[in-house]
Specification:
6 strands; Nuclear Transport Factor 2, Chain: A; alpha+beta; globular; six-stranded mixed β-sheet
Length: about 170
């Protein structure tokens, strides 16, 4: 009986003193911290976009982009539109996520939206704060024009084209 109590006591002390890494405690994040959204909704796309930037998560960001994705912006100095594909965008975004200490993306109201259950074009304003160091902070505000598509209404939306309509490049 004494050995059973000793074993039980050792087990209880071990259980109390250990943390199971496969069953972590509840998050310390505030309840208003962004969560992964349902990408089968248009708002879920924007929610995941914001989440990817806030947490500098290239996996979440990459899941937003269609294989045929293209990014377009206006180079005002040269007077031309510049376009790159998914691979270049993933590399550029990874570089941004690595270089920044903190990113804060806030989506403003939708300016224009049209389409159907398989294709949508949405124009929306944003504010982006990029903190590279405590003394080097960049702020940008602008507008994106996104075309998102999906094969069926039960599939997730993917960004096919992102046209940046900001003027800070």
């Amino acid at each position: 009986m004494r050995s059973v109590l000793l074993i039980l006591a050792v087990w209880v002390l071990t259980a109390i003193g250990c943390t199971n890494p496969f069953a972590p405690a509840l998050s310390d994040q505030p309840p208003d911290a962004p969560m992964i959204g349902d990408q089968r909704t248009v708002e879920g796309v924007f929610q995941n976009f914001r989440y990817a930037y806030l947490f500098r998560d290239t996996l979440v960001y990459g899941r937003l982009l269609d294989r045929q994705f293209s990014f377009v912006y206006r180079n005002f100095d040269r007077g031309i539109d510049v376009t790159w594909g998914r691979d270049e965008d993933m590399l550029a975004t990874h570089s941004l996520f690595t270089a920044a200490q903190q990113l804060d993306l806030v989506w403003n109201g939708v300016i224009d939206a049209y389409g159907d259950s398989l294709q949508q074009t949405i124009s929306r304003g944003f504010n982006l704060t990029i903190t590279f160091s405590p003394t080097y902070v960049e702020r940008a505000q602008g507008r994106v024009n996104l075309r998102i598509e999906r094969p069926t209404p039960s599939d997730v939306w993917k960004i096919v084209r992102w046209r940046d309509e900001s003027n800070y490049f």
